[in-house]
Amino acid sequence: PSTKPAARASKASCSPTATTIISASFSIGDSITYSIKSVAADSLRNMDEVVRIDDDSDVWTDKAVPDEFPESVFDEIFPFFDRDPDIDGVTPVLVETVAVIDRRSRQSEIGALLTGIDPTSAEAFDILLDVDGRPVDLATLGPNEVYIDLDGAKELDARTGDPLGVVLGPGNLQPMTIKGIVDGWYYKRASTDVVLMMPLRRVQELFDRPGQISSILVSNRGEGLASVDLTENVLDRLGNLPAIKDAGLELLGAKREAIDRANEIGNLFVTIFVTFGLFSIGVGLLLIFLILSML
Asked: d(Cα 135, Cα 157) in Å, to the nearest integer?
């Protein structure tokens, strides 16, 4: 009997199947890429760029690279950032990793982030609200009061008014009280589950770091992924300021780099899915060939 009708039927059925497999591979890859990009953008909130220590700067040749730098750098560069047309907020921050325990719930976290933010510039950088919808004002906090982010409150089963024990160092347990639970944060690392927020001056006092900061956070105009489009212009105009370079610092497009990594991961998944899809198509064609050869 003739095998031509069977061959034509096999080819006809194979073509849409191959197209479906490849299309599905690209769709899944695009979905994964978008999800990772959204998570990256959400985790950084309003922070688009950051001024931080440049480990590769010649300033640190034959020197130990510090964790902080003088707050006077912020005072020097602020006028340039403040009048830049693509920037709507900039604030200094001192960040320290601490252990914290909620004395009521008896829940603890050894990798919490204690962030000191300048209340004067914080509002322009980002407006945070507590869980009741009230604006957060760091300047109203007492000496041992903190705000905690909503995710951190869930992690510690914490409530407003809960007493905390914050380990600032060996033998240094600082009692604190939760002033409020905040739906967000000014700065957070990807691995951080709990964020505590206080005024910059108070954190400097607690860690005996007068006049020192960890980084300077920069917010572009626009929201979410849209603000990233302005990063290139910001880096071109401000990235080589002498006040930044001479201090051994760098202006990094943090959100753009996070999105670039998300694209790389998404492309990797697309490659994997397409490769397996093509392998499946090849196996199918080989099976059809073997069946036809036996007719």
From this structure: 22
